[in-house]
Amino acid sequence: MTRILVADDHPLFREALSAALEPYFKDAEILEADSLESMMTVLTENHHIDLLLLDLNMPGGEYFNGLISVKDVYPELPVAVISANESIDVVAQVMGLGAQGFIPKSSPTKQIAEAIVTIKGGENWVPEEMKADLENVDEELTQLLKRFRELTPKQIQVLSFLRAGLMNKQIAHEMNVTEATIKAHISAILRKLEINTRTQAVLLMDKLQFS
After folding, report:
1. Is a pLDDT exceeding 60 seen at residue 27?
2. Can you say how many angstroms the Cα of residue 15 is from the centroid of all Cα atoms in its chain?
3. For 140-174, b where at least 16 C-beta lie within 10 A, e where not — what string?
4. Interatomic CA distance for residues 126 and 159, integer angstroms
5. Which pTM does this prediction carry?
């Protein structure tokens, strides 16, 4: 049996995708999640999931935190990001952060099914028309992504609060930790990203097209 987890915060999209895939995967069990928290719960409670179809911007998953979190805990789980944002830089970032595929939400159902089969078979998949552009992605972005992959999910969360303009004390309150813990996270972030200031960290997030 093929077991697919669809993680997206739009119930109509999850329902439509599940229904559309059924003719192509008659033995499939389609599981659903609508947030990072519920996705991690489903993954914990259900073993042997063959593929995760992951939306980039569901609650808790912003700033690529969903992809980074699942790859941190389940590094062997095949993940295909399925997104309405088809920017080639975003595709490069997704693949650079460990996804096995990028599927535009505008893709025909048959193409989505073909992508799933390819990824389940152990190969990466992106739309054919994007492959040449991916080879020409800015080298500076590629190097930045390599450094960004070293961050933990908690550090990504701290970065998101920094970008929102919160001070250390406010971030500590939001994350229910001490201010000293936040300072340690920020020091580690700056070291891993090879930068010196919080402002530089925010500018890098802008370069990575975080929305």
Report:
1. yes
2. 21
3. ebeebbeebeebebbbbbbbbbbbeebebeebbee
4. 28
5. 0.77
